[in-house]
Amino acid sequence: MDTRSFLRFFFLTLCIAVALLFTWAHLPYGPPYASDLLDCSTNSAWCSSKNRLQSKPPSPTRRLRDHASDTPHHPLDPLTLPEITAVRSILSSHALFASSSSHALHSVDLQEPDKSLVLRWHHGDPLFPRKATVVARVDDMSHVLTVDLTTREVTVEDTASHSGYPTMTLEEMTAATWVPLMNADFNRTIVQRGVDLTDLACLPLSTGWYGKVEEKRRLIKVQCYSTKDTVNFYMRPIEGLTVLVDLDTKQVLEISDKGGSIPIPKAANTDYRYSAQKPNQVLKLLKPISIEQPNGRSFTVEDDHLVKWANWEFHLKPDARAGVIVSQAKVRDPNTGEFRDVMYKGFTSELFVPYMDPTDAWYFKTYMDAGEYGFGLQAMSLDPLNDCPRNAYYMDGVFAAADGTPYVRSNMVCVFESYAGDIAWRHTECPITGMQIREVRPKVTLVVRMAASVANYDYIIDWEFQTDGLIRVKVGLSGILMVKGTSYENVNQVSSPENLHGTLLSENVIGVIHDHYVTFYLDMDVDGSDNSFLKVNLRREQNSPNESPRKSYLKATKTVAKTEKDAQVKLKLYDPSEFHVINPTKRTRVGNPVGYKLVPGGTAASLLDLDDPPQKRGAFTNNQIWVTPYNRSEQWAGGLLVCQSQGEDTLAVWSDRDRPIENKDIVLWYTLGFHHIPCQEDFPIMPTVSSSFDLKPVNFFESNPILRTPPNVETDLPVCVAAASA
Amino acid sequence: MDTRSFLRFFFLTLCIAVALLFTWAHLPYGPPYASDLLDCSTNSAWCSSKNRLQSKPPSPTRRLRDHASDTPHHPLDPLTLPEITAVRSILSSHALFASSSSHALHSVDLQEPDKSLVLRWHHGDPLFPRKATVVARVDDMSHVLTVDLTTREVTVEDTASHSGYPTMTLEEMTAATWVPLMNADFNRTIVQRGVDLTDLACLPLSTGWYGKVEEKRRLIKVQCYSTKDTVNFYMRPIEGLTVLVDLDTKQVLEISDKGGSIPIPKAANTDYRYSAQKPNQVLKLLKPISIEQPNGRSFTVEDDHLVKWANWEFHLKPDARAGVIVSQAKVRDPNTGEFRDVMYKGFTSELFVPYMDPTDAWYFKTYMDAGEYGFGLQAMSLDPLNDCPRNAYYMDGVFAAADGTPYVRSNMVCVFESYAGDIAWRHTECPITGMQIREVRPKVTLVVRMAASVANYDYIIDWEFQTDGLIRVKVGLSGILMVKGTSYENVNQVSSPENLHGTLLSENVIGVIHDHYVTFYLDMDVDGSDNSFLKVNLRREQNSPNESPRKSYLKATKTVAKTEKDAQVKLKLYDPSEFHVINPTKRTRVGNPVGYKLVPGGTAASLLDLDDPPQKRGAFTNNQIWVTPYNRSEQWAGGLLVCQSQGEDTLAVWSDRDRPIENKDIVLWYTLGFHHIPCQEDFPIMPTVSSSFDLKPVNFFESNPILRTPPNVETDLPVCVAAASA
Lengths: 726, 726
Fold this sequence. Notes:
homodimer; Nuclear Transport Factor 2, Chain: A; Beta-galactosidase, Chain A, domain 5; 3 domains; 11 helices; copper (chains A, B); copper ion binding (chains A, B)
């Protein structure tokens, strides 16, 4: 080393030392303590922006509830705060934990009683013994435990046979983002890139599984961003820098640093907060508008979880992994007045979000958000008046921290009646018949909503119930893109734009192409548990010239799926079918089997190679529709333990067992898909894009079930004045 | 003839004679007189149900407007009432009409000035000379006329080269339904079927074209129903009885009577009117709910047709054939404050509704509702509070009767702001990053709606404008099924249910399988008229093992369509593309061409044989997307003259000329499709089924155009009380 080299080395080392010292003194956010996390999670105010222009006093529907004395009322009610405390206490005295050097609870959930028991249970009956399912890591081993809250008995199941690891805890994800800062090489790079360590924000990115590297140890990849001059650090990536961290030991295993020459995009025009907009640029486009219910809501939520609205009744609960779970959805038959089973359980089972860039810092980004991050854990408190309309009811989530301490995620789910001005049914007679008829009924629906912010992306999940018996499940995508830094400032500098793997959104910012798949578990019980899956295929029939002046027409052919493989469906525009879940033993007055049909909306199919490791793990997206026989262990389409899993426990594997599904208790699975080629309008935050599918009664009712509902009349509507004049 | 035969004959004849006499004395609705039709059409009260429980005093927004002194303000404003009167007067003195023995005006519309002129016109400039395009039948010949309202000059174009005939007039359709009653055979059949002639309701059904029979004369097929004990006569078909009528001579040409053994379905449970429901069966499921705007609407309608809302501005007019036409839609750029062109003209160009039953009484049912019946002519007055919410603004249609007399269809179109509780964009930071961010903006849209009742079916057409620049076009289907009588009362009596050609909906009622295709004309002008059509295709790329741990990813490849055939698109789930209309000469700051993309929603493809006569006529459904160079004569996808056309003037024929479309003024065509296999819930009236597509900005704006819009705050929202307490 010559003198100049030495001086350069000395200077650099000094810089780093100073930077490290400075870092610890000025960290933008402190390293997490359990109490911080709890504080965050128990106090919804923590999660509200300090930058909002006005404080909103909590209204009666949004008061912070004390959950300390919650008790369960229904067999499906989630674990209460006292129950989670009890689980923690039982486990802490259990040999496995007492003797361990380290342990963490990755999930603590109600173990739902057997379906047969729940179906027999009636309001007022005593509850079944309450049990919890706990997924824990103890001394670097995963365990699935059953904790009996009555007997305090603990059953331990070893999961060594599984390739995957449990959903990460918030605590270890947060801790992982701090690990790189302990590494001098990392800090040097950051400084070299011109980023002040105080401006660093890092994200814990699940690694997926690609071979030996990802086997036999829990890993996380950390990538970082500059928060300087914007809260929207996602738009300021420190490109090409990936730190591989051991999640158990919290050690840096490897630093990949390949983007040194890529500038960090500017902060200008990235901050999306209202408070950060220049007052003269604010666009007040619209006068106030509101959904108003002068006589109050038309629904009730009994015992905190049982929603009763119009002709619907269902059990609703927040869930750390699924977000929300809708159970025992029943609709009242207008003829008999009796409630009829529609769906035993429905929820977001898994997500799969592969990015389409094969390079070092991007290839692994193939997220499975429910199993890896916890879709419910990432669902923050909703913003009243903006996430949900004024007439919304809010429901809290109660979850367990990694040490078993319960915490409350307030206002995590909202329920509201929606009226957009739409029409439930109508008919006008026209001048040809000369009859004076104009009969129209407005369409009002009940929406259940949650919004999960899985780091940058926001997923809005709506379960919408219609009085005509239809259930619409809608997924909205908003939030912030995961972008890639680039030297390019203009497309005209790029010789092969398709090799950008995305769109140049702003100077030095590429929005990388990616897909979103959201797979729903739909345990349909149409008038009882034993159902069949019926495909009604439309095919062209040719007529001979003597038969008809028409050469062709479409004929519907019905086929009942005998086994699982008969029900693996890829949708085809030119080979269309309807997909019915029917009760083959129950028929309408004129003899049609009662049923519900799955009506796919706009969707996308995964086009990745079936042998590509991420597609093996996300093999539940190989088809848009699957049907499996009910099996209480088969609920998570990507497997129970998803982190770094190898795809041996997915819906695709279960379904390939090809079990009989005719006239059985069956589960329908549907995947909504989105291809997302970003565009400049998605910068710096994306307008919501939505897609949906429907569960629609088909010969379930004898006739239109909302024939007898009255129209709107002026005298029923509210009398309103502007707030200022009130 | 023996005595018994003679007696039987005599008795029958007597019956018929008595029936005929009785008929004329007790006709359920009188034969039409011009004044009746006008009365119906000019007076919206005529069209409101006499059966509604309460009368609604017209509110200021729904007052009946006097159009007698209307004047045009914009080059695209529709013909005013005085202008139509002038057209009538000019034509009545024209040689062609003065010397004719019979004539009828089938359409009287504004002849829009050349697009180049309109684009140069500014508010305040004098209007161009106003002209009308009239399609008339004079002495059994079709003519397309141009009437210059200033010079009173008339230019006559012969249309002998066209195979088709003009849109039917309401008058001749109504008259046609009376023709069968003049026929003794027909009346005998009716009586034999057990239907009282006073209970008869007949429909004029367009015949389509199947060969020689339908050539060189204007035809209509009339089928009838029993109105006994129900207004929902559609559910009581007199099956298999089809009367072929000459529309010009009003003569019965042929009676096909093949369903004598099929009973007429019962009336029970078919009446859908609120007044016909038994009070104890009324389902009042919900408390009142309303969209309220305490400070008034956020939009204005200048000069009756220019709608200005938020960042949008567009010209809106009712149209006898298209229903509504949206013109010169422009959106304000949030950076420059200037309005930018998006779409020069958009409307429902044609519908195609083929039924899937090849038998005698059904094969011909392959309707093209816009060109045959007039989609706007069939759009009746909307029902305030039910068709549109309380905050809606209403627009009247002014059309011409067959004799040229103008009439007003009041409240034919509504415009309202909609808020369903949805989210325009959002982001919450999660505990991992520890930032206190919760920014959410509510989504409010502007909806333009009309509802056409083409006999039984009701089509709800919504043009929905979003502040983020997106236009959603939604088609809702409601109204009443066209059903088929059958002897079957239960599916268990049917040996081959697929040969029913539909679903048994009730005893003796089959809902016949059919498709709906709705084709939209979308003259996109993205920042100017010259645009290109760009396909962004996503394809799987394979990686070699050395390149990446990933085996595959998706790459976007862009192709600009050079000629029309490059832009004939069949959608494929497994070969996905985005479809952009771009302005190749205008780029964003970072160099992306500005564009709008067509985002297809759930759709269906026509599967009929391409050589099947109806599919030749409906060949515009052979692809879901087409792009043609702008040509003012190519607006109606099924041709200008659609009745009995042979398909030589359709979009498919134009497109096969394969003209250049790169960097030209281009028109985008999109077809929404529905396969409809009826179910019992559709009986006796169908809950609305919807589908939609979007026109979405893609690199049109430099960034999210609604970044700077404020969130909802409590203090802006209205203060409401129940009507009863007001």
